[in-house]
Amino acid sequence: MSSFRDFLGPKLNRRNMLQVASASAAAAVMPRILNIPSAYAQAGSTLVIAAPATPQSLDCNFDVSLGTFEAIAALYDGLLGFEKIPDAQAPDARREDIAFHGDKPGGVNMVGKLAESWELDPSGKRAVFKLRQGVMSNWGNELTAEDVRWTWNRAFELGALGAFYTAVTGLKKPDDVKVEDKYVVSFNVEEPNPLLLKIHTNLYTPVYDSVKCKAEGGTDDPWARKFIENNSAGFGPYQLQQLVRGQQAVFQARADYYGGKPAIDTVVFKEVPTSASRVQLLQGGAVDIAQYLQPLEIISLKNVPSVAVETVPASFMIWIELNAKIAPFDNVDVRRAMNFAFPQQEVIKAVYQDLASPLNGCMPNIYPGFSGEFYSYEHNLDKAKELLDKAGMGSGFKSTLAYNAGDPVQEPIAIIYQSALKKIGVELELKKVPAGSFYNFVTDRKQPMIFYVDSPWCPDPGYSLTLYFDSKSYVNYSNYANAEVDKLLAEMAATADENVRLAKAKEAQKIIMDEAPWTFVTYPNYTMARKADLKGWTYYTSNNIRFQDFSR
C-alpha cells in the first residue's frame, strides 16, 4: 500500500486558503490602520501590508489560513528551496523554478536553505542533508540535526497536517528521521518516494528550535503547542515583535540571519477586512502592499502612477464540489451535465475581468504533469439537458450551492451559474455562509454543492492528485471514489521514475475529468499590488509573499 494512502483524514484539518475575516465598514478600519507606532515609522525601513486577516496561529501544524502564510515564511526556514528565475509575464518579478530537470537529483532545481548540501540515494529511499553550521534561531540556539528530528517527530505525534506530510513523504515512524551526526540528518522510507526532496521546499515543513520549544513546553506540553501558537521559534529571517489578533502583527529583521539581514527592517502586517479599504490605503500611500483585491479594483489600480500591479499565472484553483454521496450527484451524467451548464467564459469576463483562465484540469496548470486535453465541458445547455435526460432527471431537480460570504467572487459566480441552470430545469438555492464558519461547512461534507478554493503547495502531480482525489484523503471533499484512480496514485507514489509517474498521472487525470467530481470554474491569477518603488517581489507556489525579498 502506498504511503500516500496512509493519511486517514480525521487528523488532518486543512483550512481553506482563501478564507477571510468577516467584513467591517471602511470608516472603522481607517483610523486603526493609519495609527502605526512611531517606532515602526522609519522612512524606507518599514513595510506596511494591508491584509484581510492577521495570523490566527503561528503553529503551521494546525493552521492554514490567511495571515499565517506570511508569518510562517518570515519566522521559519526549511531545508531546501526552489531556485528563482525571471517571470516571463512580470518583468520586475521572479518565480520559483518548478519545472522538471532530468539532470538534477529528484528532477528538481533546488537551492540549499538550512541544508548546505544533500544527497538522494539512487534507490529513492533515502535522502541525507548536511546542515549549515553556525545558523542561529531567534533565541540564540544553534541549528542541529536534533532540531530536524524533533520537528518531524512532532508531526508524527500531533497528527493534523503533520499526518499528511509524513505520510505523503513515505515516513512510517519517527525513527525514519535519523540523526547521523550533529549537523547531518537522514530521511529513510521503505518504498521509493518522489517527494523526499520536494517536501522540504514546502512552506509548512519548517524546522523548529527544539531547545527553546522543549524548555517552554516542559513536561506538561512536550511539543510546545501553546508556545508555538503565539511565538516564533525558528531560524527564519524575521522574529516576531508583536501579535495582536484582529489588528496587526509586527516583525523585526534579524541581523544574525544566516542569509544576511533583510533590506526591510520592520514589517507591519495590518488587518483590513474589506478590499475597498485596502485599495484606498494603497492609493493614499498609507500602506506598501494591498493583498487579495477584487478584479475591478485591480483594474482601477493599474491607472494609479504611484502603484505597480502585476498579475501572473498561479497555482490557485477555484471549483465547486459535487458531493458524490448526495443524490443526484452520485450519478456521473448529472455531474457532467452540471459542467456543460457552467458558463465558464462568461464568469471569466464578467467576474474576473479576464484576470483568470478556464479551469480545464484537476491540478494546477503551471505544475509538471498537468494535462488539459481531457476537458470537454465547453458551455452547452443542449448537451447538459441531454445528459440529464440520460440520467432520468429530464424534468430537472432542486439543489443547494453554499458559498463563502468573505470571498468577493463566489456570490457573483453563483448567481451566473444559478441563471444558467434554471434554463435546463435545475433550481439552485444559494446559501451564503459567513466566512468564519464556511470551512466547517466544507469539511462536514454535508452540502450537495459547495465552493472551494485551494492550491496544492508541492508542485508535483502525485501530491496534487492524491490530495483531492484519493478516496481516503481528508481533503477529498467531493467524496469522489474510483478504485482505478486510487491504484494509479498508489503506483505513482511507489516509484521515483518520473516518466512512469507522469504517464500514470495522465491516466488518472483522464478518468477524473471524465467523471467530473467538480464543477470546474477557474484558475485565478495571483496579483501583486504595491507601491511602485517597492522591488524584489517573487511569486511562490504557496501564493504568499516573503518579506525578505523586498527592498527600495
Walk me through what this model shows:
Helix 12 links the parallel strand 17 (397-404) and strand 18. It contains 16 helices and 22 strands. The strands form five sheets. It has a seven-stranded mixed sheet with strand order 10-11-12-1-13-21-14, sandwiched between helices. A six-stranded mixed sheet has the order 16-20-15-19-17-18. The chain has a four-stranded antiparallel sheet with strand order 6-7-9-8, with helices on one face. Helices cover 28% and strands 21% of the residues. With 552 residues, the chain is α+β, with helices and mostly antiparallel strands. The chain folds into three domains: 3-7 and 77-211, Dipeptide-binding Protein, Domain 1 (Dipeptide-binding Protein, domain 1, Alpha-Beta Complex); 26-76 and 214-313 and 527-549, D-Maltodextrin-Binding Protein, domain 2, CATH 3.40.190.10; 317-524, Dipeptide-binding Protein, Domain 3 (Dipeptide-binding Protein, domain 3), CATH 3.10.105.
